[in-house]
Amino acid sequence: MAMLIAWQAINAARRPNSTRFTNCFLIIAPGITIRDRLRVLEPESKENYFTDPKRRFVPPELIGDLRKARVVVTNFHAFQLRETADIAAGTRKLLASRGEEAKKFPETEGQMLERVASKLAGCKRVVVLNDEAHHCYRMKPGKNEEGKLTGEDADEAQKNSDQARIWISGIEALAKKKDVIGVFDLSATPFFLRGSGYPEGTLFPWVVSDFSLMDAIECGIVKTPRLPVLDNSVSGDMPKFRELYKHIDPKNLPKKGRKTCGVQDPENIPEILRAALDAFYRHYDETFQKWEAANIGRPPVFIVVANNTSTSKLIYDFISGYEREQKIGEKVERRLVSGKLPLFDNVDDYGRWRDRPRTLLVDSEALEAGDSLPEDFKKAAAKEIEDFRKEVERRDYAAAQKLTDAQILREVMNTVGQPGKLGGDIRCVVSVSMLTEGWDANTVTHILGVRAFGTQLLCEQVVGRGLRRVNYVPENGMLKPEYADVLGIPFDFTRRPNGQPPEPPPQMTRIRALPERADCEIRWPNVAGYRV
């Protein structure tokens, strides 16, 4: 995206009369987390990619032209038309009694664009960049090819359809006001989701280039996912650990979110889940000790993806410790119980919550309740919180004065694995579904799935959160291999989504250099080999 912006903006500065180029850009993300990460594409941002000496996208003499670019980063939810007037409850009742309950004073499309992209007000031409663009499409007109969906599948399809409609409607509203000279879609999974009317997994017909995950693994530009060798676990359990959720009795896990199921006792965690956590933790412990010995300066990260908020809280309490009521005589006292996995324990040796937690619980209810952001953490991380506040202040002074716990928690998530930042000390993240996209800490070494994985797409999205490399500096011309150990996720990146009939090989034409031009020969790298 940075290179697309640089190419457009510099050409627009050098050729001001050309209609092919512009220095105005609208970048659309699927959520707040990704939106915040994309701030690096704003030329005025302190940590922008364009002036980063490691990347050097643009020669120094062209930086001035690039700084003229106007870049707006937003999430698609901002395209929803809001009410322009607050109406008191009594007034609403009065309007309803007159049959006017539908009168909600919504924004016009022009007002919505002014709110979302006021920075682009004077622009004639705009380029749109869609990140995670598999959320943006028009539903298939006419016959639905998906077949009948029920239960959770139908709910998921409706959610996908609603998101896609809002997203693409926002771009169409922009196109009515501006000359949208290009829309660039970027996605690791460029195909229709459930709810589109097309069979799930059908490649978008407008795909220009697709670089598969298998290619990336073979080239070594991402980590290699692997099933860990757990030497000290019961050998008979290994196949069960690979598809862990399938082997857990549904009666032993809460079926709903915390609001429905209430508080669960961490001591009653299913035995096979406890065994998997213990075995996988021992494997993590070995990795942790090696990182400590190598003086890397930041811990490896262990992530758990659960099926609902009740299960995530249950696992979080088991891992990191929890509060328990204890009756002593007539009095009821509360005491802290240490977590069962010491490196992830949020309770210190004196029976108090650590100032800086080692394990983080992330789900919508935790964000609302602030469970994962205690006052002690705010005090201990006062400097990092103030640095974050100043960074926001540079972009929007008013927003910096209204920072919420939810925004600070998102910053903790976004900076996991970054020393000196809010998330620098986090070793374990327990989540529900927030880790399927948009979170790319490069220090993830272990991924545990405790949920159903109905499609290889979901497996790929979750495993993909752990595949970003730590080191991109080659040794002797080659990148050193890095691995992400995966348990509980039946990820099979060598399997085709659809069975293919056998076909004869195509006729081959061998290309060789002419003897007199042998010194101009282009040599292509060969894969030294890979293991499954």
Describe this protein's structure.
With 532 residues, the protein is of the alpha/beta class. The protein has two domains: 2-215, no CATH class; 228-487, no CATH class. The protein contains 17 helices and twelve strands. It has a six-stranded parallel sheet. Strands 2-1-3-4 form a four-stranded parallel sheet. The chain has a two-stranded antiparallel ribbon with strand order 7-8. The chain starts with a helix and ends in a 45-residue tail after the last strand. Mean pLDDT is 81; it is low at 494-500.
Helix content: 25-40%
Q: Going across the major beta sheet, what is the strand order? A: 5-12-11-6-10-9
What distance lies between the first and last C-alpha atoms, to the nearest angstrom? 33 Å
Q: Which segments are poorly predicted (pLDDT under 50) over 5 or more consecutive residues? A: 494-500
- What's the domain count? 2
Mean pLDDT: 81
Rg from alpha-carbon coordinates? 26 Å
Q: What is the 3D shape?
A: globular
Question: What is the count of helical runs?
Answer: 17
* Order of H and E elements: HEHHEHHEHEHEHHHEHEEEHHHHHEEHE
Largest sheet: 6 strands, parallel
Give the structure's gist in a few sentences.
With 532 residues, the chain is of the alpha/beta class. 32% of the residues lie in helices and 14% in strands.
List the helices and strands and how they pair.
Blueprint: H1 2-14, E1 24-29, H2 32-37, H3 63-66, E2 70-75, H4 89-97, H5 109-116, E3 125-131, H6 151-177, E4 179-186, H7 213-219, E5 224-226, H8 238-242, H9 258-261, H10 271-293, E6 301-306, H11 309-320, E7 321-328, E8 331-338, E9 359-362, H12 364-369, H13 375-380, H14 382-395, H15 397-401, H16 405-414, E10 428-431, E11 444-450, H17 456-464, E12 483-487
Parallel strand pairs: 1-2, 1-3, 3-4, 5-12, 6-10, 6-11, 9-10, 11-12
Antiparallel strand pairs: 7-8
